[in-house]
Amino acid sequence: MSVAEFHPIHGVLLLDKPLGLSSSQALQRVRRMLAAAKGGHTGALDPCATGMLPLCFGEATKLAGVLLGERKVYHAVCRLGQVTSTDDVEGIVIRECPLPSLDDASIDALLQEFVGRISQVPPIYSALKQQGQPLYRRARRGEAVRAPQRQVEVHALRLLQRHEDRLTLEVECGAGFYVRALARDLGERLGCGAHLAALRRLWVAPFQGQSMIGLDTLEQMLLRDGREALWAR
């Protein structure tokens, strides 16, 4: 598609990002579908995560910086007993440990220690920049990398389910929080290590309770009804 075929489109689309695509890849696919001249996303989801990814087009891209700082809610599955190189399921397993004896009460008590204003060390495989380069690039080159500790906000954290080596959590957090790092730190506190096995973003404020649209549904709608029907939703 040539530059001349793109059009000025203004608005926010709440994409249900599928598994396996980076946020940038998802944005570019939607941008091509809409033939949108200008677009951006408001807080990346890793390829192994799914869920709400607000995409801003045209004049709405001015909202992107504001939305980056808003609250977000996730459902996260932590796998205990395995530490990976990336703190999530995409990395290689670098350590395995037996599981300790656990009960819901002790896990709940530990989770509450992570609520509030806390210090967090981001994963080294992240897009945070150090010496002008993303940390993940330096890590992939085999350089010794340590991410700087940062202050982040956790508004609520609760255990939804415990099954064998999996903990399913609901996490409500602020800007800059890494759920991967939470899984890693919980594993360390439990003495068995852990990584993030699955992650789904349920909402980004102020879009609580609003419906998302998947890529396949979006494509079918555009083919059937055209772009105008999308903004009428």
Automatic annotation (TrEMBL):
Q: What CDD domains does the annotation carry?
A: PseudoU_synth_EcTruB
- Fetch the InterPro entries from UniProt: PsdUridine_synth_cat_dom_sf (IPR020103), PsdUridine_synth_N (IPR002501), tRNA_psdUridine_synth_TruB (IPR014780), TruB_C (IPR032819)
Gene Ontology terms for molecular function: RNA binding; tRNA pseudouridine(55) synthase activity
UniProt domain Pseudouridine synthase II N-terminal: residue ranges: 31-179
Q: Which UniProt keywords apply?
A: Isomerase, tRNA processing
Key word tRNA processing present in the record? yes
tRNA pseudouridylate synthase B C-terminal domain residues: 180-224
Q: Which GO terms describe its biological process?
A: mRNA pseudouridine synthesis; tRNA modification
EC no.?
Answer: 5.4.99.25
Q: Note the HAMAP family from the entry.
A: TruB_bact (MF_01080)
Q: What is this protein called?
A: tRNA pseudouridine(55) synthase
Q: Which organism is it from?
A: mine drainage metagenome
